[in-house]
């Protein structure tokens, strides 16, 4: 305490000019002319709509990933004063004046620029020379694809930034470990590792691969520490707990907080509401909440309800009936019961109202006090407008002949008795005496006579033909295997019926529901639901013109046209630096072969390189080759639409490997001075070719200057590249 | 249940008719052989589950499968005995397998699984045995077990592709073994080379040779045409007696007015097909569907016409025959529906980059989008087009795209046939090449053609491609509730083998829940023990020799088994195809062996703490006895599952299974 009285406080700052220079060059390369082109470029059209929705606070669900990346992009829009009013409908559309293009693109560009010094620092921490580190940084700097990707409102550059940050901070921790565990800076870097990891995962699920890799490396290092007798059991335990806290607990908490912010920001109902359950929708302002506010919670005998199918995919629909009957004979000659149709209808309609009736009583109003319906009770469901009873019987359903037809019973006075008793089974009940609750309860209706289950089957095939107005089929499923969501229903709109007379009741049904209480879900419930939806929601996998397979990426057999000037030939492509990609592949190959050779020789106790050089060599391989492999190979197993930009994180790791291999070759394999200088000369020549190629393709990276058709043709180095030529 | 599949296939072998199945042939061949030996004549139709066998002798085939299934018990016993050197552990494993209802049910019927499990366990046993001969390398027994491993691997691969996982297990183990040998400096490099060569010979070359031989037998036995022909190329079909391409005679050159079928040249490509159904709304233009279909069918027939005029009637004998030449512009009319093959700038249903292909026009009158230029690969203009031999490309005149098959399966509205598109990318690939297979033209003389007979390697490759296609085509349909891999270890849901109603004789494939849950718990227990053992060893704690031996058993023996379990279980999470409960049984075998080993070591370890050896032995024996009794009792409870239940379903209190439906998802 008070030490500064005895000794003056001295602040010494060392500035690494290399790092500074790299940062500046990186910023220039990424930020130059950032607001050009002033038009929607490629996937901006996709992310842009989410930014707009954030600005307007409208809820949405994006199945491509967690919300942190979108939020960062939206932050750019917020800082630039974007009001969200822009129609993101077409690639190449001109931005209107209210869109702050520069600030929207700033964050990805900054992240892309900072990757350059990060690459430098990573190689330094891996204990390679400053020369190698400089080389790595320059390679990243001159990589056309990384430049293109970071200059627009896209997420990859942010992802790569967080990945590299996580790797760098872990390396810092590992290097600090040797002399100053549990010091301030050690804690700082350890926590930063966890934060960067969670940010990477939060931007795109791809970040998970690197996170797992880092966890594995950390696990391996800790395993070595266990074997080290210098550590006492207690200090080992402390290390273990610190790591668990920083690398597992902290990222999980961060991840949750992303969702918390996301859900707090977006409180208005919007286009994706129907994907969510009614309970979730009710928590959003303006959507279902407006209707369901103030509904009675407990369904009672006499309640008027609409029943929504829980599956809700691909469309939501409600149990519906109308006065038309099933045709006596279908087109294929099978017969029907000719009773009133029951369907699942994807729109709100007065015909979606049903009344819950006690089989033992005649009345259709709620008694006072209301008698709630509980799990296991037998009920009848009366269609509100036609007052017919929901019925099913042993007649084949119109489209799914294996299941029973569901109808509203008309007494034709033929030998077909009414079978209209249904048992209410609350699936998500807590006890067997649970009350059937509006919105919250998911209910199965089991037919008492045949134990068939009411199911909306129309999602899976064609909709009903003309006679059924193309609505969705509803059947009684006899083989009720498990709990499929299409067999579950929940009450969405609900009110206690008051009118006994039919015409009064019709008026009552037409009037909107009102009154006021809100049903709030807890954050965890909302989070679980949203997370589940993000993971399971599957868009129709449409093939895209520029989609490619993972195998095309290594050789860069594919490109993506991002933007084309409406009149001139100026265009922007996602195209890598050919020399860099090829050398990165060669470097990976050389690394793997050399390592295998060393490993086999070491196993026979022949040591080719000194132990001091072996450790960094292995560490660099673990991170660079490992990082490349974990970010690349999983794509072979994925079934979604893949694009070239998915390869960029893997590529970044592979590029970092080039200087590692080069330095190793020059240090350990070039034994004579002559060889060494020849090798350096070759390296310089190779590097200039990287620069030359970078310059050649610069017009396609920055979109200016515009090129003429023959010039463009000259740039088409591979037949599979799709460079757009404007017809003269 | 699946007996209908495999029994039918055995019949095919006995009748020597060719068929197609997604699994390699060994298992079915063995069943067929067993049937043949036991006097089954291959006449039972195997049409639907539950049919009575009547007088057909099926017992041989069932007996064979059951025999192989019961071999699992001694195999598992020996393996565990070898790994743990402990009799109680081996006995516990054996008890588990004997009294598991699932294993019993699965091995009682004509299925591939008992055969697969037999080879799989055989491979594991021989690896373990070979390992214990490791101190006497190159001795006779070492060679015996090593080559037996190879044989079993070939067998496992030959029954189902799931056998690949055990190949992987053995491969990993061998690599580890070799790495160990490399590290011991007492061995010279030459000796190491010998080790390496021996393993390459026995574990790679030998299985490959056997595997190929198996296919050779398969192709020689099945030389008659049968239901699987359409899956294969024209060249392949010409091998089969009775196929219309065997010793075929048809007009050699293509002429206008001929009726033809066209087959796509990609592996397992179908015939160009059309039918009365239209593309549904929202998917391109609402015109008639054109697909590729793998079976022979009348709807595969097309008539070749000139683009500008309707060719004179075939029945008119006076009109001269005009041949189609390379580069001609033609029109293809579908024979059944009289619509023209048509394409336009709408996107195709699945491959959105391509154009849609439809059937268009009425009675052959259409528009200029019906014109196709016919070209033969590698020919000059004006040459005639040969049936079967010529590889033909059809270019759409108006848009310049090429007719091709994308190989993707259409959804339900397209009857799960294969998509046909017109691709604007002019890449040369078999997807966009076709050949003419049937050719009917009464005005031309039939000439006997012998198609180039394919070599054995080509047949082998082709049949594998077709099998892989078939396997990946087994996608779950949208509304099917399928079994998920996480259901399996917790015994969540079984598989109904036969019988639904109360009066039927019902068999339900479900593991003995007590055993399965014991297995599940044991896996967790094992992980705990293994991690703590590894940490203890790594910390350099000094152990007694007894404990060291236990640690070795846990880490090496248990590790191998655990790896086997992981390899046979985890990959299923990544599979897109339809999965069934019985896919877990290979993993379940490993899990049972692990249970034996783990409980044995755990009890020994606990008993080690009790100082007087008499008490220790008592506790040890007591717990063991309790486990065995528990297994026996649970078997007594659940045995009707596999030996058949008659009477009301379990929800009824008077049923023999009353009160045993511990989980709602069980359906007995």
Automatic annotation (TrEMBL), chain A:
The keyword Manganese does not apply. CDD domains: beta-trefoil_MIR_POMT1. Residues 296-359, 370-427 form the MIR domain. Its main location: endoplasmic reticulum. Pfam families: MIR, PMT, PMT_4TMC. Its EC number is 2.4.1.109. It is found in: Endoplasmic reticulum membrane. GO terms for cellular component: endoplasmic reticulum membrane. Pathway: Protein modification; protein glycosylation. The chain crosses the membrane at residues 9-32, 68-88, 100-120, 126-142, 154-174, 186-203, 208-226, 246-267, 578-600, 612-630, 642-662, 674-693. InterPro entries: ArnT-like_N (IPR003342), MIR_dom_sf (IPR036300), MIR_motif (IPR016093), PMT-like (IPR027005), PMT_4TMC (IPR032421). It catalyses: a di-trans,poly-cis-dolichyl beta-D-mannosyl phosphate + L-seryl-[protein] = 3-O-(alpha-D-mannosyl)-L-seryl-[protein] + a di-trans,poly-cis-dolichyl phosphate + H(+); a di-trans,poly-cis-dolichyl beta-D-mannosyl phosphate + L-threonyl-[protein] = 3-O-(alpha-D-mannosyl)-L-threonyl-[protein] + a di-trans,poly-cis-dolichyl phosphate + H(+). GO terms for molecular function: dolichyl-phosphate-mannose-protein mannosyltransferase activity. Keywords: Endoplasmic reticulum, Glycosyltransferase, Membrane, Repeat, Transferase, Transmembrane, Transmembrane helix. It is a multi-pass membrane protein. The keyword Plastid does not apply. Belongs to the glycosyltransferase 39 family. This is Protein O-mannosyl-transferase 1.
From TrEMBL, chain B:
One of its GO terms (molecular function) is dolichyl-phosphate-mannose-protein mannosyltransferase activity. Pathway: Protein modification; protein glycosylation. Residues 251-307, 321-377, 382-439 form the MIR domain. CDD domains: beta-trefoil_MIR_POMT2. The keyword Transmembrane helix applies. It comes from the Eukaryota. InterPro entries: ArnT-like_N, MIR_dom_sf, MIR_motif, PMT-like, PMT_4TMC. Its main location: endoplasmic reticulum. Its EC number is 2.4.1.109. It is found in: Endoplasmic reticulum membrane. It catalyses: a di-trans,poly-cis-dolichyl beta-D-mannosyl phosphate + L-seryl-[protein] = 3-O-(alpha-D-mannosyl)-L-seryl-[protein] + a di-trans,poly-cis-dolichyl phosphate + H(+); a di-trans,poly-cis-dolichyl beta-D-mannosyl phosphate + L-threonyl-[protein] = 3-O-(alpha-D-mannosyl)-L-threonyl-[protein] + a di-trans,poly-cis-dolichyl phosphate + H(+). Pfam families: MIR (PF02815), PMT (PF02366), PMT_4TMC (PF16192). It is a multi-pass membrane protein. GO terms for cellular component: endoplasmic reticulum membrane. The chain crosses the membrane at residues 59-80, 87-109, 143-176, 196-217, 514-537, 549-567, 579-599, 619-638. Keywords: Endoplasmic reticulum, Glycosyltransferase, Membrane, Repeat, Transferase, Transmembrane, Transmembrane helix. Belongs to the glycosyltransferase 39 family. This is Protein O-mannosyl-transferase 2. It comes from Eurypyga helias (Sunbittern).
């Amino acid at each position: 305490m008070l030490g500064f009285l005895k000794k003056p406080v001295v602040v010494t700052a060392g500035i690494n000019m290399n790092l500074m220079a790299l940062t500046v060059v990186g910023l220039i390369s990424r930020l130059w002319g950032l607001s050009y082109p002033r038009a929607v470029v490629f996937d901006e059209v996709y992310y842009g709509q989410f930014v707009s929705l954030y600005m307007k606070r409208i809820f949405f669900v994006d199945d491509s990933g967690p919300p942190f990346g979108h939020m960062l992009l939206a932050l750019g829009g917020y800082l630039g004063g974007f009001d969200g009013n822009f129609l993101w409908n077409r690639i190449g559309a001109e931005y209107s004046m209210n869109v702050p293009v520069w600030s929207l693109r700033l964050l990805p560009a900054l992240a892309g620029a900072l990757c350059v010094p990060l690459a430098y620092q990573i190689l330094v921490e891996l204990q390679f020379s400053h020369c190698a580190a400089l080389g790595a940084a320059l390679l990243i700097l001159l990589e056309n694809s990384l430049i293109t990707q970071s200059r627009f409102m896209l997420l990859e550059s942010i992802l790569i930034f967080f990945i590299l940050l996580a790797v760098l901070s872990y390396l810092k921790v590992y290097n600090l470990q040797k002399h100053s565990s549990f010091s301030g800076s050690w804690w700082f870097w350890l926590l930063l590792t966890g934060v960067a990891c969670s940010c990477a995962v939060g931007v795109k699920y791809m970040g998970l691969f690197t996170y797992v890799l880092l966890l594995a490396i950390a696990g391996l290092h800790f395993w070595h520490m266990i074997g080290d007798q210098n550590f006492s059991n207690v200090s080992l335990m402390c290390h273990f707990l610190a790591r668990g806290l920083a690398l597992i607990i902290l990222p999980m908490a961060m991840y949750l907080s992303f969702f918390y912010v996301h859900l707090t920001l977006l409180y208005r109902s919007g286009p994706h509401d129907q994907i969510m359950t009614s309970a979730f929708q009710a928590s959003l302002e303006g959507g279902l909440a407006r209707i369901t506010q103030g509904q009675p919670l407990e369904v009672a005998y006499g309640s008027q309800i609409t029943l929504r199918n829980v599956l809700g995919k691909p469309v939501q629909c409600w149990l519906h009936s109308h006065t038309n009957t099933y045709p006596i004979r279908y087109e294929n000659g099978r017969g029907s019961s000719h009773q009133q149709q029951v369907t699942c209808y994807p729109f709100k309609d007065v015909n979606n109202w049903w009344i819950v009736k006690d089989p033992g009583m005649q009345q259709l109003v709620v008694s006072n006090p209301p008698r709630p319906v509980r799990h296991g009770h037998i009920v009848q469901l009366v269609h509100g407008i036609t007052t017919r009873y929901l019925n099913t019987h042993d007649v084949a359903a119109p489209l799914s002949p294996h299941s029973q037809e569901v109808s509203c019973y008309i007494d034709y006075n033929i030998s077909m008795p009414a079978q209209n008793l249904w048992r209410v089974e609350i699936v998500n009940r807590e006890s067997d005496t649970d009350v059937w609750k509006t919105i919250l309860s998911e209910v199965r209706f089991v037919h008492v006579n045949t134990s068939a289950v009411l199911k909306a089957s129309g999602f899976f095939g064609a909709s009903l033909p003309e006679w059924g107005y193309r609505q969705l089929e509803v059947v009684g499923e006899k083989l009720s295997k498990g709990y499929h969501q299409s067999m579950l229903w929940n009450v969405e709109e609900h009110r206690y019926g008051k009118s006994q007379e039919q015409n009064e009741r019709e008026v009552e049904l037409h009037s909107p529901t009102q009154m006021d209480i809100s049903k709030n879900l807890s954050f965890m419930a909302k989070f679980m639901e949203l997370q589940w939806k993000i993971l399971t929601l599957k868009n129709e996998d449409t093939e895209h013109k520029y989609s490619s397979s993972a195998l095309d990426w290594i050789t860069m057999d594919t490109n993506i046209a991002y933007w084309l000037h409406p009149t001139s030939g100026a265009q922007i492509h996602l195209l890598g630096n050919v020399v860099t990609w090829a050398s990165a592949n060669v470097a990976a190959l050389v690394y793997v072969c050399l390592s295998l050779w060393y490993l086999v020789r070491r196993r026979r106790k022949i040591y080719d390189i000194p132990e001091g050089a072996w450790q960094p060599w292995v560490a660099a391989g673990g991170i660079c080759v490992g990082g490349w492999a974990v970010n690349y190979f999983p794509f072979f197993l994925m079934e979604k639409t893949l694009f070239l930009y998915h390869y960029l994180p893997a590529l970044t790791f592979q590029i970092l490997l080039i200087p590692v291999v080069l330095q190793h070759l020059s240090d350990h394999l070039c034994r004579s001075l002559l060889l060494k200088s020849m090798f350096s000369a070759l390296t310089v020549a190779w590097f200039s070719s990287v620069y030359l190629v970078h310059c050649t393709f610069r017009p396609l990276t920055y979109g200016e200057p515009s090129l003429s058709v023959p010039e463009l043709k000259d740039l088409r180095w591979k037949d599979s590249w799709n460079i757009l030529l404007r017809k003269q | 249940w699946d007996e209908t599949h495999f029994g039918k296939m055995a019949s095919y072998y006995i009748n020597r008719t060719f068929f197609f199945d997604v699994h390699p042939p060994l298992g079915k061949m063995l069943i067929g052989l067993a049937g043949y030996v036991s006097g089954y004549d291959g006449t039972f139709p195997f049409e639907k589950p539950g049919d009575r066998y009547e007088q057909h002798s099926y017992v041989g085939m069932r007996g064979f499968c059951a025999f192989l299934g019961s071999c699992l018990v001694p195999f598992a016993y020996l393996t565990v005995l070898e790994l743990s050197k402990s009799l109680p552990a081996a006995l516990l494993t054996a008890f588990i397998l004997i009294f598991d209802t699932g294993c019993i049910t699965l091995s009682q019927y004509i299925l591939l699984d008992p055969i697969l499990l037999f080879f799989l366990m055989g491979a594991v046993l021989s690896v373990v045995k070979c390992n214990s001969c490791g101190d006497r390398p190159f001795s006779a027994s070492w060679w015996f077990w090593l080559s037996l491993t190879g044989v079993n691997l070939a067998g496992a691969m030959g029954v189902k592709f799931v056998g690949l996982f055990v190949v992987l297990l053995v491969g990993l183990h061998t690599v580890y073994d070799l790495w160990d040998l490399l590290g011991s400096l007492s061995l010279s490099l030459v000796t190491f080379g010998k080790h390496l060569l021996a393993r390459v010979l026995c574990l790679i070359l030998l299985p490959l040779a056997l595997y190929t031989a198996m296919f050779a037998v398969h192709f020689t036995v099945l030389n008659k045409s049968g239901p699987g022909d359409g899956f294969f190329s024209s060249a392949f079909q010409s091998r089969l007696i009775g196929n219309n391409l065997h010793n075929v005679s048809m007009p050699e050159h293509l002429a206008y007015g001929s009726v033809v079928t066209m087959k796509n040249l990609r592996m397992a490509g179908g015939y160009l097909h059309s039918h009365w159904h239209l593309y549904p709304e929202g998917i391109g233009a609402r015109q008639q569907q054109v697909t590729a279909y793998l079976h022979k069918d009348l709807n595969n027939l097309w008539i070749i016409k000139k683009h500008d005029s309707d060719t004179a009637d075939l029945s008119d004998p006076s009109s001269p025959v005009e041949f189609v030449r390379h580069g001609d512009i033609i029109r293809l009319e579908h024979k059944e529906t009289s619509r023209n093959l048509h394409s336009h700038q709408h996107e195709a249903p699945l491959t959105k980059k391509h154009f849609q292909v439809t059937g268009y026009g009425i009675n052959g009158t259409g528009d200029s989008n019906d014109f196709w230029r016919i070209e033969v690969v590698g020919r000059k203009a004006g040459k005639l087009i040969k049936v079967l031999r010529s590889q033909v490309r059809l270019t759409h005149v108006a848009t310049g795209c090429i007719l091709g098959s994308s190989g993707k399966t259409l959804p339900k509205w397209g009857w799960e046939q294969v998509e046909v598109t017109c691709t604007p990318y002019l890449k040369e690939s078999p997807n966009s090449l076709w050949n003419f297979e049937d050719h009917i033209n009464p005005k031309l003389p039939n000439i006997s053609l012998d198609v180039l007979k394919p070599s054995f390697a080509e047949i082998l490759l082709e049949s594998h491609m077709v099998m892989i296609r078939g396997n990946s085509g087994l996608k779950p349909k949208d509304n099917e509730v399928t079994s998920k891999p996480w259901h399996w270890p917790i015994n969540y849901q079984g598989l109904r083998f036969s019988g639904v109603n109360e009066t039927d004789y019902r068999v339900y494939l479900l593991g003995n829940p007590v055993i399965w849950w014991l297995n599940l718990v044991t896996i967790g227990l094992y992980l705990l023990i293994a991690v703590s053992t590894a940490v203890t060893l790594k910390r350099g704690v000094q152990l007694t020799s007894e404990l060291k031996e236990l640690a070795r058993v846990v880490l090496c023996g248990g590790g191998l088994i655990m790896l086997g379990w992981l390899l046979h279980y985890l990959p299923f999470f990544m599979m897109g195809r339809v999965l069934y409960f019985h896919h877990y049984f290979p993993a379940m075998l490993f899990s049972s062996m692990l249970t034996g080993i783990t409980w044995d070591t755990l009890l020994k370890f606990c008993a080690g703490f009790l100082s007087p050896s008499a008490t220790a032995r008592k506790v040890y024996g007591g717990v063991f006895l309790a486990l065995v009794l528990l297994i026996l009792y649970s078997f007594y409870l659940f045995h009707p599952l596999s030996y058949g239940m008659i009477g009301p379903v379990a929800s009824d209190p008077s049923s023999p299974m009353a009160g045993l439906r511990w989980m709602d998802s069980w359906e007995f």
